[in-house]
Every structure is written in structure tokens, then in C-alpha cells.
Amino acid sequence: MIAIKGLSKRYGANEVLKSIDVQFDKGRVYGIVGENGAGKTTLFRCVAGLENHGGEISSSLEPLKNHLGLLLAEPYFFPKITGEEYVRLLCNARGRKVDGIDGRNVFDLPLGKYASAYSTGMKKKLALTAILLQGNEYFVLDEPFNGVDIQGNIVITEIIRNLKELGKTVLISSHIFSTLSDTCDEIHLLSGGRFIRSVRQADFPVLEAEMKQAAIGSRIEALGLT
Ligand SMILES: Nc1ncnc2c1ncn2[C@@H]1O[C@H](COP(=O)(O)OP(=O)(O)OP(=O)(O)O)[C@@H](O)[C@H]1O
């Protein structure tokens, strides 16, 4: 469980998160949606302990950052480190030995090659593999499906379902509604620094319809296409 109370974050005059209160429970998958710049990544970075912020973030396993795997939307890798070395480095940081790494290479990555030379999708798969093998309890996945091939997306969807069954807590952001409705128990809509809508599975179609209506409105007519 992760409990967030009065979370606020500003960059200079830009107040990105405004006193957010929310709880993320064990064995549940949460989707975070919101338009570009709404603050999803900022929220995730705060949860992962990468940003100073107002308010409190606590968890049933402390310190939270030692049990949390963060998948960044654009993972960065130091040059001259192979995929295998990266996975081992992250696992060692948690005092975890990785045996039979080749057998656990679910995305068939070229682990002997430099990670910095991987494609965008391969980098994401590598970063995800590493946080999975770390044996985390909490997973914060910023746009995990974006840039990943169809097979990879299918595997990631199954992995998320598996994490839920194992009782892990998973937060995901995505700009593709179906990826969230396939995996999440709840979806929170972030706007103006707050969660303005929080819906459970049964109401996902309602939320999707609302967001579609708000997105399209009369914009297409305004284009005056003929
Ligand atoms: N390091 C930073 N310094 C200053 N402003 C920042 C910084 N990081 C993010 N911001 C600002 O915070 C706001 C939220 O950004 P954030 O990246 O969290 O949004 P997001 O919801 O993840 O967007 P997207 O869907 O485009 O990825 C934006 O206005 C952004 O410009």
C-alpha cells in the first residue's frame, strides 16, 4: 500500500500537483491519465523519491524507494554498459543475485550488447526486465506500452496481470485508453494538479466516452474539412 497525503509540487511559479490525497492498495493496478503536461511523470517521480515535494508519501514497506521499481518513459543508460550488466547492476543494488538471466530474458533482448545502442522500445523492455528481476513490491510504470512492439505490449499486459495476482501494487500512465482498461482496477484522471475523476472498472466506458467528448467537442468541425 502507498498512501499519499497532501502531495504538492511546484516548479517555480508552476504549481503542478495541488494537495493530492490518494491511496494505492496491494494487489491492485491503477491507471493515471491526463493531458500532456498534467503532471503524471511529476507524480511518479515524487512517489519514487526523485523529487522534493510537499505533503507525505508513505508505504507499508519502508523505505518506499527500496521496494519500488520506476520505469521511466524514456529510460537512460550509461554508455558502455551491456544489457546484462545493467540488469545485474540494478539487482545487486537490492542485494539480489540473478541466476539464469538468459532464461528470464522474456523480451529476447540482445543482453550482450550495449544498452545505450538499443532502440527506444528495446530500452524500455530492458528497464522493465531489470525492475521486475529486482523483485519489487511497487511498480510505477510511466507509459510502459509506448514505443513497444505489439508482441511486447501483449507480454507487458500479461506481466501486469501477473503482478496483480502476486499482490503487487502497480501504477501505470498511458495515453491509450484501451491499454489501461485491459489492465487496471481503477483509473484516475489528473487535471489542474488534482485527481478530478477516479473510476472503477465498471465505469471505464463512461470515463472513456466523457474524455472522447471533451477531446473532440466541435474541434473537427472547426477544421472545416471538405
Ligand atoms: N524539471 C522540470 N522543471 C520545470 N518544469 C517541469 C519539470 N518537469 C516537468 N515540468 C513541468 O511540469 C508540468 C507537468 O509535467 P509532466 O512531465 O509531469 O507531465 P505529464 O503529465 O507527464 O506529461 P506528458 O503526458 O506529456 O508526458 C509541465 O508543465 C512541465 O513543463
From TrEMBL:
Alphabetized GO MF terms: ATP binding
Domain ABC transporter per the UniProt entry, residue ranges: 2-217
InterPro entries in UniProt: AAA+_ATPase, ABC_transporter-like_ATP-bd, ABC_Transporter_VariousFunc, P-loop_NTPase
Family annotation (SUPFAM superfamilies): P-loop containing nucleoside triphosphate hydrolases
Keywords for the protein's UniProt record, in alphabetical order: ATP-binding, Nucleotide-binding, Transport
A Pfam entry, by short name: ABC_tran
Name this protein carries in UniProt: ATP-binding cassette domain-containing protein
Species, as recorded: Thermomonas beijingensis
Lineage start: Bacteria, Pseudomonadati, Pseudomonadota, Gammaproteobacteria, Lysobacterales
